[in-house]
Amino acid sequence: MVARVFIDGEAGTTGLQIRDRLAARRDIELLSISDDLRKDTSARADLLNSADVAILCLPDAAARESVALITSDTTRVIDASSAHRVADGWTYGFAEMDRTQGDAIAGASRVSNPGCWPQGVIAGLRPLIAAGLLPADYPVTVNGISGYSGGGKGMIADYKAAGDLANCFAPYGLGFNHKHLPEMTEYAGLSAAPLFSPAVGNYYKGMLTAVPLRLDRVAKVPTGAELHAALADHFAAQPAGFVDVAPLAPLERSDQLNPQALNDTNWLRLHVFANDARAQALLIAVYDNLGKGASGAAVQNLNLMLGVDQTTSLAA
Question: Which helix (H) or strand (E) holds 20?
Fold first, then answer.
């Protein structure tokens, strides 16, 4: 059976990448709207309600409007905005988050695609909290850098215009109210929001998140090997998942710790570094902010919802 898929917002960065990934699929019929009708509510409603799956690549307010336009009980939705990531009735689209999450996505009618920044944080912290190695009230700090494509068309244009003169490391979110904090807190299993300090680099795509851990603040101090084993066991149990854990090694530096190392793949790789004598550790995640962090995750969720191999159309 051919599934009818409508990408509402296909002209945006994420929408274009999703469409490119799906264009050659024979099990999917891509519905499209002409340029002159993109803001025509009636035309969009017709397409939304005729689709088997609608993928929303829109600002939050527009995504809520699109959901409100859907009256068909057969249209399933993947929302790539942040409008519904912690909303009741929506399934969070990070398949590797738990052993049952892929099944939950497969059976859901409403799936909220994860934000790019939270996935590395959730992947590193949730298994450790679930294993009892970190408490839910641990005071988490998150640092990271992303390519400028994460800022959308406006930021892409600004960086391209500036060229080599663009800021190579531009911290932002300095009011500490980043829109990804609610999902980061909710799905990592934290009792309070982390202190989050993101930055944009002068390159197109790819990201790295870093979570430093002062383990002397934990009642029973875990070793680096225990942290690594908990993460490795968690993701080894995920069927056909796209998260892996690098070997534990006493490195001072590594070429793998490059935010662009996994560009053009759907992989997220976790690294654990530790000094047991100092009771200190560092969790680092590397992935493509437009891959696993956006369009790749959406295609993976679509595959699960359609009952096909979740790796279909996704580069390894």
Answer: helix 13-22
How many angstroms separate the CA atoms of 37 and 17, rounded?
A: 21
Give the span between the Cα atoms of 203 and 212, in whole angstroms.
24
- Residue-number span of the structural domain to which 108 is assigned: 3-114+294-306
Residues 109, 130 within the same domain: no
CA atoms within 13 A on the CB side of 277: 0
Instruction: Give the three-class secondary structure for 149.
Output: helix
Domain CATH number, residue 273: 3.30.360.10
pLDDT tens per residue, range 73-130: 999 999 999 999 999 999 999 999 999 999 999 999 999 999 999 999 999 999 999 9
Q: 139 near 316, Cβ under 8 Å? A: no
Q: What is the CATH number of the domain that holds 50?
A: 3.40.50.720
Query: What are the tokens at 305?
Result: 């919802």
Question: Is 50 contained in some domain?
Answer: yes
Nearest 5°: phi and psi at 9? 105, 35
Tokens found for residue 98: 């738990």
* pTM, to two decimals: 0.95
**Exposed/middle/buried for 222, CB within 10 Å: 0-12, 13-18, 19+?**
buried
- pLDDT tens digits, 142-181: 999 999 999 988 999 999 999 999 999 999 999 999 999 9
Residues involved in catalysis? 116
Are 181 and 248 in the same domain?
yes
Encoded tokens for 27: 């099990």
